[in-house]
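Fresh eyes needed here. Kindly weigh in on this sequence plus structure tokens:
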Amino acid sequence: MRRRVVITGMGVCAPNGIGLTDFAEAMALGKSGIRFQPELKELGFGCQIAAKPELNDELLTQYFTPLQLRGLSATGIMYGVIAGTDAWKDAGLTIAEKEQPNWDSGIIFGSGTLGVDKFREAIYQIDDKNVRRLGSTSVIQTMASGVSAYLGGILGCGNQVTTNSSACTTGTEGVLMGYERIASGQAERMLVGSCSDSGPYVWAGFDAMRILPRNYNENPEEASRPMSASAAGFVPGSGAGALVLESLESAQARGAKIYAEILGGSVNSGGQRGDGTMTAPNSEAVQRCISQAVAHAGIQNNDIDTINGHLTATSKDGLEIANWSAALNRSGSDFPYINSFKGLFGHCLSAAGSIECVAALLQFKKSQLFGNVNCTDIHPEITEIISPDRIPQKTILHQPTILAKASFGFGDVNACVIFKRFND
């Protein structure tokens, strides 16, 4: 018999807010974290704006020991440890004693590229024949599972501790991986999340592909325009989001607060067949992913009242709306409310799904639907399918009951998770 799984803790390190309180306020007010980056101008980037959390030494010392900070340059690890540690504390959980790990708690914390700056440093040290100067942390900073390894040691988790990586789908996929482990009885709680490094060595490839907005360097807050007719490409971002998933029995036994329940979901790939490519989704696969998520959750299409889409502010936004409409067999005013958060903090790549899950779940707590900024000119391809009032531009009062959150990533990979308001 499968167990019910709920969310009991959340943490976030986002470009527009670090910590749940600041992040929730920024989301409700439409505060942007997209800024001009002088470094990108100096390097000759066409798009000279990006979104990254603003860290400082005082903040970092609250999460890392002086020894851990020595030589630490992997921003993704910094973001992930902040978000993950905060989620653990938000859930009211304690750190395991030094003598023995917590066998019932595990971690699935994803990443895309990790420790890129450390790789660059290593290349120069090796070329200069200064290998010994790399330091003892170069390996953990550059291995994909470095972030989960850091968190596993900090929290003392003794269940599965691992890292997943599936491009922009990483965070949402990780939620479903953690859900499955608890639902099947293999763990009581799982810290799930994802992170992405900051900096030109991560963002340069996208600038070279000319898929970033180049005409907004002087007004960065208006650059990311999901579902807009004037959308000119996604703004690169970074950060981390984290959620503590827990069996309902465990959460209730310790009197934990509950943000929402996970009903189920689906993960698939379009195989880069049909209209799917390395960078474009196979529409049939997207629709199947959504439909299978609904079926796995044990609900009907018309039960969904809220959608948080992937919606990156590219030419594919209209296609995504068409796929949602086809999968749910809903259109016009019957279509659920839908929003994209990338107008406020850009596309955070491998961290996107987890940060957006945190924001989506905050809407349950706040009884709000966060607005779609920079979407005054909804693309006509979209208004042909759904009514404009389904895409509120500012935050409105709205109590989600069942929310679908999806992510679609490079490599033609998809994930959709169904969240439900917890009321029993």
Notes: The chain has two domains: 5-253, 264-420. Residues 5-253 form a domain with the Peroxisomal Thiolase; Chain A, domain 1 fold (CATH 3.40.47.10). The mean pLDDT is 95. The longest strand covers residues 5-14.
